Amino acid sequence: MPVPDIFREGMQKGWRVFDGNQRLPELPAPDVIIIGSGAGGATAAEILSAAGLQVYILEEGSLKTSSDFHNDELKAYAELYQEGALRTSADGGIAILQGRTVGGTTTVNWTSSFRTPNSTLAQWQSKWGIDYATEAEMTPWFERMEQRLNVSRWQMAPNANNDVIRKGCEALNWDWDIIPRNVKGCWNLGYCGTGCPVNAKQSMLVTSLPAALENGAVLIHSLRAVKLDHHQGKVLGVQCQGMNGTLTEADGRRFTLTAPNLFLAGGAINNPGLLLRSKAPDPHQQLGKRTFLHPVCMTLATFPRAIDGFYGAPQSVYSDHFNEVAPTSERMGFKLEVPPMQPSIVAALMGGFGEQHFQRIQDLAKSNLMLALMRDGFFEDDLGGQVKLRKNGDAVVDYPLRDRLWATVAEAYVKMAEIQFAAGATEVTPLHIHGTATRSLSEFKAQLAHLAYEPVSVRLSSAHVMGGCPMGADATMSVVNPQGQHHQLQNLYVMDGSLFPTSVGANPQLSIYALVARLATNFLA
Amino acid sequence: MPADKHSEQVDTSRRGFLKLSGRSAFALAAVGSLVSVVGYTGVRWQQRASASAEANYMVLRPQDILFFGALLPVVLGPNPSFQASLTSSANPASAPVVTNTLGQLDTMLAHSSPAMQKQIRDLVDLLTFTATQGLVSGYWGQWQQASPADIEAFLQRWQNSSVQLFRFGYQGICQLCQMAWYGRPESWADIGYPGIPSFLRGANAGS
């Protein structure tokens, strides 16, 4: 192997890593059970285990490590993503990319590492009573996690796909900047989304989870937390069941684990799902509400030169030129970025069929996709989605698409096309069920006037699921308090992105790391 | 689009639903919503539609294989590698590109979720069950005998439909076929994708 697989090596040294379907050996009893091994769960596990607590980490996904990662898109989508990367909102209006593997989404994300915008913190403080949501209070936590995960502005030249944002924004005199990434010795390959084959991405899989395991933590993967047992304001234990081989259902061994404290870190769809299945107290009907997705709309551009967006760091340039809006605005703020351009995902995104689709995909190497990440949850009329249970107990997010979102899409389409044309694109197409290529901005705008803004017709995706267990000082409008502690179940804490009472307004991983680092440290105090 | 003209005249409120349901649930399928149509008709078809996967497949049933096998060449269009393999096969339905892509699709669905698997089964049932197929798709014959023009007309009908269920079905069919085929190395030469960096195909691959 050209690159050591540090996780497998650790297991050979004796880390306590088990498959949920295997019989567990005699183990020390847990002080804390953490459900979920992603950004939140692993960060909490490292901090608690370093303080000497016996931690169990439960993960529904399977264990895949660097020697399993071959940049094979379909293998990765099937094995490493929730619902095999085919997850959508309840009515199919938004496709949702979310990790389902040891390390959670951090194993497959594109490494963008932004601090929580100050305007977001300000709203959390003023509207949700989160007293520490200030730049001064949070900066030490951002710094700590940036150092831990080697976050720094990307030093190499951006690939041509990202450079479209720089070129276009420079021509238009709009703001743009370089993205900070959590990588160490990055090979600039471009396949972050299929799992880093060289362990350069400082995901949970190579940082906090190994540290926790070194500290004696127990990791049990391929294991679903089916239900929490609770009584008189306390969680007694978690009913678990082993997952099947394709991770679609829990059909394996059942057992119950108990601990004095439980942390939920299974993500913003699965956490509310587990609490709903458990019939957790919810006197104010807040559970599962305020689920935010940063819905993303896209435009496709063709250039007269090679873009080769399938290679090179997938995200290295962004623009926040339109990300801050006034309280009176009719639209949401949006952040502009690009996705990686590997063929399977791009083929599925670009739309059309037959001749039209082939014309588009044939130009893959000359194409650029731009995306506007819409900052949902900041207005009274923007409540996001709600997590509900399917008949079989699986969680699904119902996300109604409202006028404010359509107004944002309409504006974002135009701004993205402006950047793409300004960067030299010969054609730009809105990713809409009836979108066609246009050769100028005026032609593009004329086309928009004829497009219907309705579900499915506007192609929407999400890679950031937040909220659903919002924190707040007022128990009538939140699920947990600002320390992450459940309002009704006193030994239950939420420790991941499902805490956020709004979306973040930036790729959320660093917001999760910093917030959870703070909350887990306070838990110890 | 006959189905769409239809839908404009139909009251989709509760009262409209009750009026319509007297006619037939399948007529409702042409105008109705995802939940009511797929939910209700799904129950009715369980006796008729084959419920278990084809041998060597994890999820796809015989009718799914016939349906997606027939649609694949039209969805993928003039893709040279795909078309070359089709024309050089005695039986295009069993050309390697078709069976490999269906196998890929099967793997994708097998790793999705019970809800997604059911959605695809209901969709294919709606499009293959005699009583509903023509009404919702505009094509009445066997899919494996449909001409490319028939299939294009069906896809366009759903693409242009005012019914969200049909647009979602159109998008789902296209995306699944496109994801599956363009995830396969034999598709890459036609689209200027050089493939994964060579060192990853070497020592590290398959380890």
Automatic annotation (TrEMBL), chain A:
PANTHER family hit by this protein: LONG-CHAIN-ALCOHOL OXIDASE
Residues covered by the Glucose-methanol-choline oxidoreductase C-terminal domain: 386-515
Pfam families, sorted: GMC_oxred_C, GMC_oxred_N
Stated name of the protein: GMC family oxidoreductase
Keywords for the protein's UniProt record, in alphabetical order: FAD, Flavoprotein, Oxidoreductase
InterPro entries, alphabetized: FAD/NAD-bd_sf (IPR036188), GMC_OxRdtase_N (IPR000172), GMC_OxRtase_C (IPR007867)
One Gene Ontology term of the molecular function aspect: oxidoreductase activity, acting on CH-OH group of donors
Boundaries of every Glucose-methanol-choline oxidoreductase N-terminal domain copy: 77-296
Record flagged with keyword Oxidoreductase: yes
Family in the record: Belongs to the GMC oxidoreductase family.
Keyword Magnesium (UniProt): no
TrEMBL record, chain B:
Key words, A-Z: Membrane, Transmembrane, Transmembrane helix
Transmembrane segments: 25-43
Organism ancestry: Bacteria, Pseudomonadati, Pseudomonadota, Gammaproteobacteria, Alteromonadales
InterPro entries according to UniProt: TAT_signal (IPR006311)
PROSITE patterns given in the database record: TAT
Protein name: Twin-arginine translocation pathway signal protein
Organism: Aliidiomarina iranensis
Domain of life: Bacteria
